[in-house]
Fold each of these.
Amino acid sequence: MLSFRYLKIWIGGAILLLLLVSGVAAPLLAPRDPQAQTLEDRLRPPRWTENGSPAYLLGTDNLGRDMLSRIIYGSRISLIVGATTVFLAGFIGCLLGAVAGYFGDITDEIVNKVSEIFLAFPFLLIAIAIMAFLGQGVLNLILALMLSRWVQYCRVVRGEVLSLRERDFVTAAKALGGKDFYVLFRHVVPNTVASVTVIATFAMAIVIISEASLSFLGLGVPAHIPTWGSMLSEGRSYINRAPWLTIFPGLAIFITVFGINLLGDGLRDIFDPKLRRQR
Amino acid sequence: MNTIRRRLLGAVPVILGISFLIFLLMHIAPGDPVSLLLGDDATPADIERTRREWGLDQPIVVQYLDFLSRAVRGDFGKSLKFNEPVLKLVWERLPATIELGFASMLVAILIAVPLGVYSAIKHNSLLDHAGMSVALIGVSLPNFWLGIMLIYFLGGQLNLLPVAGRIEYGMEVPPITRLYLVDTLLAGNFPAFWSAFKHLLMPAFTLGTSLAAIMTRIARSSVLEVMRQDFITTARAKGVSEKVVIWRHILRNAMITIVTILGLQLGALLSGSVITETVFSFPGIGDLLIQSISARDYRLTQVLILFFAIMYFVVNMLVDVLYSVIDPRIKF
């Protein structure tokens, strides 16, 4: 089954790469300015349909803006929010989890209590609550999603560190005179990388869906920035007249998230020995 | 009983923490809720008077304690948008969300348990791979998009199902439990029951599929885990029929994990209900939350979020208690 497992990583990785390229090179790839309105061309269907215009591959929206360009630019927000959130939440979660697991006692207790409070919320609700009170904006969005995602890393890393710290190589490092923080970050934490990578991959998928959901609810980035979620929300009123306004942004979200989940699945199969035994 | 009492006591500090965080959030919100609500025409005197009426001129700790002491007495104040007591609004909308939640859970169980169990029993077969691919697709589908697509195809193109609301306009439902399916049945009003059922189908399917996708994988892996245990080999060795092995030995043990995840996923179901209710204009508390946010009705928003959090917490606690029923080995 090795080849099938790698196939997942290849396909998932390719889709993630596509997102990366489309986000970074959006100005080069997009055929038009995503904000440019051509009112006489409003609600044009995709090129291959009856009334489609060759100028617009995926059609235009209610203001005559090119859908393809907007979808390409929309990937930027998914990418920026997804990557930054996963990185920051991972950093905070791992740091707290490692410290709590390694030092135990009161540190562990405090970190545990705080994470319990965050776990007491369904995570999308934390994000909704924060966005409701702080208002729209990319930074607020990242903050909201980060605050709702760090706990997972924290819990997993804490658990792993708890068992790792009892291992012989840690005792050896300490016996050689290693200071606590040195031993923790040089010897213990690197051993959690496999699990953290898997969590981070799945977290990226969840964050991208959450960002789209928040934008859909009008709680994401400001309306003038094109995002897949807000495109869906705007297109919803034209669902019967112009279904392409909702079909394409939704497909973009789906394909991206599917690819990242596939990658996460593949990575987990390789990293998780327990699962490997089950096969 | 002791267990439940102990868990309830343990929940108090967490709920206090949650309520304080939500309370704090409202105060770091940019802009003054009073001037936002009263609009540009309000004079400084108006604003000052309203602030005093709501106690917003007091120190934050006093405000929080005041909020708590009222909350304990069930007084959450009035909604600014609807001009009605917050609790009454929540109470009226809650049954819709509960009905949707149960229906979605049912959809999820009906899809996930057979698919997961079957994939595990036939594991590594073509069917197993197909089942897992379907689950992966399900996890990756944004449920608001699925909802909109259902509205487009089933509601718009095929005109099979109603696309918004809980029941056809003008149909009477006696307010007994406020769960429309139950109330219409109790009243013997079958056309109304059918209408409520049809209105519930698409939202429940939308919300249920995302849960089903996660549960399928959990069901599969927990069945796989149990299948490898020695007692299963023993059962087979002593000649127990395969049917009994699967139903009595494997499923019963795998159910523990499945029920746990089911409970934990209720949180996802709650936040999912916010989105699904918005897509289908389904009048539950998720829809109310989004309305309160867009109207900047901070007080209602605050109470609703608190309510969601407490509901989630209580459900998780119930799941814990449910374990000991399913698995007598677990004692608290």
Amino acid sequence: MGVYRLAVSVMPKEGILDPQGRAVEAALPQLGAASVHNVRVGRRIEMTVEADDALAARDLVEKLAAEFLANPLIEGWSIQEAHPEGVA
Amino acid sequence: MKVGIVVFPGSNCDRDAAHAVRLAGAEAELLWHERPDLGGSQAVILPGGFAHGDYLRAGAIARFSPIMGAVGDHAARGGLVLGICNGFQVLTEAGLLPGALRRNTTLRFEHRWVTLSVERDDTPFTHAVPDGARLRMPIAHGEGCYWLPDAELDRLEAAGQVVFRYVAPEGNPNGSARDIAGVIDGSGRVCGLMPHPERAAERILGSDDGMHLVRSLVESIARVEAAA
């Protein structure tokens, strides 16, 4: 049994209008950053998973992402290793 | 006749929905989301609000509330389920209705009156709507942009599952595909819409058009009871 810290990054699917990204991008000229384009906003969800091994931990998180953390109709996701809890 | 109204933490239109149901002559019972049953209700309303704070995605967490198992069983048995606003979002997240409700393309929370066409007046939720009537109801949502891939929208329309559309003079308030404001499932027993019929339940509120829907629902229960 091991303890694994994983993160799920959820993003709006390509080709789907992302109003949050558009709103953020609209503010950029005020920061003198008019050269920045194609802003998209998603979310990152970090979690600590107890599992037999790293593969089992990732499988479980993959299942959670597909069934709960993302809506596969409109969002895509990827899974990354995250820093252990308490370590920035 | 009893209509159960599910109360999630963060629901805020539950009492309004209960009031509208009582105006239509039926009993209304508020059902806390943690209970595993519907208390003998013959129909269920999932009301508006911000269930579980709308965290993650609107409706995403509510879908896993204990009562949703009973709501799913009720729908599978042909029971009537109406989702209003946040309730519509919960039903799409739960897979009981097709599609997804995304953030409004207008970049803001939209709260105002809209006008709806009724594309299907032969459903348990709309049969009391006068022929050809356009309905005035308020909306209040940040995530009401109905979305499905184009090919699936074609299938939805061909199957007659689009029940309400936003029409002039206000038009489409949130960027919904094909101006869709409400849909019904393949069985014709589960319906969801973003506008609020319970907030248009008395003329003093500005419109009582919403009562056509609530009355349809209550009369549909009466018909089932009479047939039994």
